[in-house]
Design brief:
Four Helix Bundle (Hemerythrin (Met), subunit A); 6 helices
């Protein structure tokens, strides 16, 4: 899992940089042809990781139920996100991943409630499957964010 955690850490740092290098307006912008924005995608990857890794392991998550309701699968931005919420999302990117890495190393993930991913049909049977899927999921959303940036900046 070392490589998986390394790629996740690098991707999360890229997301941090995107937040730091774009205005609140650009983070909230939903271009024609899109149904979400940059900050929604970043909030979504944090929430999804917590759900797939912690909730399905029967453990407490490191994000609020309000955040889960706002960024989980099948949601979309309803209102612009405030600067305070952007700061909160940015502040969750690295610490949630570091906690996951530490918990994984300490063997915290003892049980896992099998889950079939609706978008791909893959069944996650254990924490290793979950972490590998989280990596793929975050990279997909990195691609969405790059597409949004390209449209917004042109």
């Amino acid at each position: 899992m070392d490589f998986t955690f390394e790629v996740l850490q690098n991707t999360r740092r890229i997301f941090q940089g995107i937040i730091e290098n774009n205005s609140l307006e650009d983070l909230n912008k939903i271009p024609n042809g899109f149904n979400n924005n940059i900050i929604w995608n970043i909030g979504h990857i944090v929430v999804t990781q917590q759900l797939l890794v912690y909730k399905l392991s029967g453990l407490d998550m490191g994000v609020s139920s309000e955040m889960i309701d706002k960024y989980r699968k099948d949601t979309k931005p309803e209102l612009p996100v405030s600067q305070q919420e952007v700061v909160e999302i940015k502040g969750l990117l690295i610490p949630t991943l570091e906690k996951t890495k530490d918990d994984y190393a300490q063997g915290v993930f003892k049980t896992y409630h099998e889950y079939t991913v609706s978008t791909t049909g893959n069944t996650l049977s254990d924490i290793n499957d979950a972490l590998q899927f989280v990596l793929a999921h975050e990279c997909i959303h990195y691609g969405y964010v790059l597409a949004l940036l390209k449209v917004i900046k042109n």
